Amino acid sequence: MSQIKNIGVFTSGGDAPGMNAAIRAVVRTAIYYELNVTGIRRGYEGMINGEMVPMDRKSVSNIIQRGGTILKTARSDQFKTPEGRKLAYGQLKKHNIDALVGIGGDGTFTGAKIFGQEYDIPIVGLPGTIDNDLQGTDFTIGYDTAINTVIDAVDKIRDTAESHDRLFIVEVMGRDSGLIALRTGIAAGAEAILIPETKTNINALFDRLERGRKDKSSKIVMVAEAEEAGGAFEIAQQVKDKYPNYDTRVSILGHIQRGGRPSCMDRVLASRVGVAAVEALLGGHRNEMVGVVHNEITYTPFDSAIKHNTDINPNLLKIVEILSL
Question: In order of start, what are the domains of the chain with their CATH numbers?
């Protein structure tokens, strides 16, 4: 029988729409199984500083539709040190927390893996990142909302591009993963998509623009941030130098991709994995991420989950080439 009596839940790293839905699911599932649950504010930094608050049904009322995270989030350099992790463990013991649910991405799970190895405390993770770059789940919490936010913005950009016969280079988030750029580029009818998973050949972009319809009044090129060719502004300058007749503009969508009400898909995903996380802890799981693959709950060791999902479906890239004519 499980000895878990009090579960601590926290969010860490970059915020993602749907995190609140996940917090709600963890809290209410813990209560359903007659467990105590404690919210840890500001991620690992708050864990070190003892920012703990008991949570009940009421504390997670009316949050499922809210973006961001009611527990706040932060990055912690101190937690990267043995001394910082020792302080964090001391605070958990002080507050009688005997299991953890961490909601986040790479950094969250890397910290959880090390923490779980150093101290005998069960930890499970929930995939909360807009980048959708974790192994062990088809989609991450926040990804669906983020790509729909991008589509809404690019549709508006297309309106002004059409009105002025402009070419827009649109930069979206995804320093290590181009999945946001790839899917939104297809959905927005982009002429080209530049992502870190495929080596950029600027001449290939020029060729794509050359082969496109000359009478097309607007053109959209989607670029993942920190793209190897230099990012949106550098790419735009090269396009201007090659095609001075194009009215080329840059739009950096930035942090609007992290905000907003979570989509139905993100709320359901967050709810499913939130319930599964508590049940996983009660079932003896530890040092694993809970995900959904082929509509089934799965458990992936942190070591495997944080290996970036770099395999891009070549059919999606082919679709871009075909439909951009």
Answer: 6-142+262-305 (3.40.50.450), 146-258 (3.40.50.460)
